[in-house]
Amino acid sequence: MNSQLNKRTILIIMGATDALLSGIVLLIYFGLLPIDISNWGIPRWIIGLVGGIWFLASIAVLVYQVTKTDISG
Predict the structure, then answer these.
(1) Structural element, H or E, at residue 16
(2) Rounded to whole angstroms, how far apart are CA atoms 55 and 33?
(3) CA–CA separation, 28 and 55 (whole Å)
(4) Is residue 30 part of a domain?
(5) Can you tell me the distance from the alpha carbon of 41 to that of 54, in angstroms, rounded to the nearest whole number?
(6) Range of 19's domain?
(7) Which of 1, 14, 4 is nearest to 73 (CA)?
């Protein structure tokens, strides 16, 4: 099998998984999932910042890999 195609597939799966996990973190931050983050000892804004940056980075990787047209060399 093509090594580049395998690498691209893995990056697509990784980007989708990261987007899902970071989306869950953001849902917790916005209070849409019933998990109390006030007892974690981490300021609330840091969780939101980390979740937001993580989400944007994972979406960027996913969109780049999905829209990439040159899969050769």
Answers:
(1) helix 3-29
(2) 17
(3) 13
(4) yes
(5) 20
(6) 3-67
(7) 4
The answer as to whether 72 is a domain residue is no
The DSSP call for residue 1 is -
pTM: 0.83
At 26, list the tokens: 């953001």
DSSP string for residues in 20-48: HHHHHHHHHHTT-S----GGGSS-HHHHH
What letter does residue 56 receive in the DSSP assignment? Answer: H
Number of domains in the chain: 1
Structure confidence by residue, pLDDT tens digits, 5-61: 788 899 999 999 999 999 999 999 999 999 888 888 999 999 999 999 999 999 999
The structure tokens listed for 45 are 């804004």
Say if 73 falls within a structural domain. no
